[in-house]
## 1
Amino acid sequence: MKKVTFSTFLFTVLFQVAINAQTQNFFEDVFLERIWLSVTNLNGSYNETLIAFKPDATLGIDTAYDAEKLIGSDNLSLYSKIGSRKYAIQALPSLSFDIDVPLGIEASVDDVYTLAIAEEVNFTVGAQLIVEDTKTGIFHNLRNEQNFSFQFDHQLDTLRFIAHFKPAPQYGALSGSCLLNDGAIYISNPSETFWNVSIFDLDSTIIINNVAVDSFIQWSQFVAGFYYISFRNEYDAMYNVAIQIESALPVEMQISASSNLVDITNATVDFTAILSGAEDIFWDFGDGSFDTSQTQISHTYNSPGIYTVTAVAGSPGCEQFDSEIITVNGVITALEIYTEVISNCINGNILLTFNKSIQPQILEIFDISGKRLQTKTLNALQQNIEIDCSLFLNQLILIRVMGQSGEFNAKYFCN
């Protein structure tokens, strides 16, 4: 007799249990993970038991789910055991760790019998059902070969078999960033059974070759694309899965400023960002002001100084930076700190010496009216600057050196 649908008749003949709402759910719940085990002999006798996996079930007796086997006058019965009790239907926790279930077979005659998977529903690919024959020491993978035949002594072999349920390994991919070569594949094995893992690309090139995984492992430096993972274990289980590593879109960006040198009297600077592959952009104008989400933007500075403007463009997994230096000059007049001549030109040159902690960046020379005569970019490590005095003969000049951490100011008369 072969089970084909849920019915009172099948419960009576095959399971010998009382029907209730909970046990009926084992047949009607389309998402429940279930497996039916059957036993037959050469004379055509047939019986089966049901194992189901539910998140709220336990390894002990669950009165809401488990149903005891009522052994009648049938010449063949198959059941699972919890302690000394026999069950036609047994609920177990979700298969996230190894679970061992003792099986019982009661028969009226010695014969050649066959254990088999009669049906499985929603049973995870890669999950294993290993039947252990404690009499012969044989471990048989019923998911590879769904029939296991043996000579059965009906007086001695009742508790001869154990069903070992083993969860499938978990696997996944971590997307790469815009570097394009930093994706990852990981394997997590919750079972005590080792899995040998190999990874191939679409050209069948071996990337990872036959690595034993007993817990968790992760491999990095994968370029974006599709791969195949091959799983094998000691019970001759073998299956392949495909996996994709996605990559973030590379971000490219370049910013520019309408001017890198402005006076405080007209200190508005227009900035433009040319970018691709970005979803967001963030501006830091260096003076404590920020803005977002515009590729063209204007900013007005309120104080003289040297400002580093930074733009950050990004998409998930990828960022790009670019920056510009903006110098904002103050208004120079004869009434400022230059109240007396510090020095005269000597031998036609002016030699400036100052503490290198200033980290000089810009040299500016003004006449007494505040007109800028010369601007020069400096090396931040300079401590001495020589100025050709012949360019400013018979003039009183004002000199400013602006640095990252301070300023140097002086007043000279060139003769």
## 2
Amino acid sequence: MLKTLKNSDFLKLWLGQLVSRVGDGIHEIALAWLVLELTGSALSMGAILAVSITPNLLFGLPAGVLVDRFNRKRIMVLADLARTLIVLVIPISYTLGVLQMWMIFAVAFLTSTAEAFAGPARLSSIPNLVKGDNLDPANSLVQITKAVSSLFGLSLGGAVVAVFGPANSFFLDSLSFFLSTVFISLIAYGTVSREGAESLLRDVLVKIKGGLSYVVNDPFIKQLIIIAAGLNFIMAPINVILPFFIKETLGLSAIVYGSMTACLSVGTFAGSMIIGNVTVHRGKSLGSGILGIGASLVLFAGVFLLSQGFLLPTIIMIGILSTALVGVGMSSSFTNVPIITLLQKTTEDSKRGRVMSMVNMGAMAAMPLAYGFTGFLLEQVGAIPLIFGIGTLTAIGSTACFRSREIMSAR
């Protein structure tokens, strides 16, 4: 797997992802704590997360067309440079004493808009930088990098927020995007095949239609997108529940939140190491991963309920809950790596940007609704019943993969 880093251009892409993911970890902790600090509302948490994913729904298909039409390296550079500047709005406004919630919503929307273009460009570029036989190791390395840098970023984010406050933490987030811009700008990205282009507007409309037709007429790709959408719909509420559970239910600090969230990254790292170094049946890995996520969430809820009955010390309870989150992260690697690799291997290069954008759109299509309902239900029934229900639904949903001939035959 590490042999892929001998490819200097992939190495630069990897380094860019590494530093920006560290910043993302700080961003995640700081944003959640800032919103809770200003409002104390689970509904506001759900709203900010809903705003964060809306750009993928609005711009996903046009972004895929532009990724297929224009230089993918330039798209990534421009997106990271834009985010470098956008996130500075929060700490500067806070320092001047003019920070308002609408500014936080605007920053969340604009940074997510940039990612709507950068994400498909990044995933679509990997097959242009590495050979086909190295796609699984490369994608596993991407997942490992995401896990390790998020682990460091989340842990660092908890400490930074505790020491400097959530608003000032965005200075480090900005720095991470700047460094990513530098690394990606150094990639020697050659000319690759592109479909012919007419006027930009006509090209966008025609290619959106062509991309949709391509996905609709390919049962296998269509199933993968549906699976990604269903999994994200069920998993999305965890992003709202976990900070609320730790701060409001347990009364613990941002450091604990960062540490527990980092356990997801520990699991992702472990799972990606396995996928990257061992030949696996991709279809069975996908189904098993979804089942593992559900089982781990049920375990999380069950352990908390039992701990209340047996009056376990807080540190022991946190340790067991963190172990369950490691299981969630590990299982997610068993789903994410196979999905991305299968899509990269089966999609034509000239259409890959659009397919990757549709994957992002499918994965996020129902998430605003999920976030909104979660914020409401969280205040009505509490965190643990929601986690238990989500875990149960996820485990049941895994049966769809095991019953699919196309998924089970994917190796």
## 3
Amino acid sequence: MGEAALWRRLVAECLGSAFLAAVVIGSGIAAHRLSPGDTGLQLFENAAATGAGLFAIILMFGPVSGGHFNPVVSLVDAAFGGLRWGDAVAYLPAQVGGCILGAVLANAMFSLPAGEIAAKHRASPAHFLAEAVATSGLLLVIFALSRSGRSRSTPAAVAAYIGAAYFFTSSTSFANPAITVGRMFSNTFAGIAPSSAPSFVLAQVLGGVVAFGAVRVLYPGLSPNEAGDVLVPHDHRVEDPSEVRA
């Protein structure tokens, strides 16, 4: 059995990213409406829904594309040899476009303007550090499990980590350039102003670089085959018979 056709993997990354953004933004809107004036409870509701949703989304789409939904994950995976560079680059617009679509859908589900630009400013030195820490921690979880043969635990581990990082980081752990761009298109509890987004993305990329180095030190034997199981093992039972015969 070979790998899934690239177009199928791109569809999976786009749909998964859309669901992820819809969960993050939609639960933020619901939390703001259900618990007005209680920011702590709103954040808890947002974090719980995001963690649960992320777990399910990785299980849904991971067997096709790996369930990255995050450009930093895809690029670091390519750096370890688990994904071809051309495929990693192709993943990026699918992930970003999916997150924008998810933001628009979340707005529409709550009768808000479909693409209203966020006005919530989040950029600060503390937020920059928080995003670098959140992203590096996320990648360490992913690649540590892959290297130690526990990739099937990754959906639960990633969901738990992101849920926790909502609270232990001042930025509420975006940890993903695609979701950062998507959240620009919702002027709600989970939104981020366009002027703040570049700082977040730069911190996330930096976090990816730090994580790459840390994984090299901690798990020097990480092979391309092990990296290829990020986030979850791909069983690749999705090819056309014509593709198999070819």
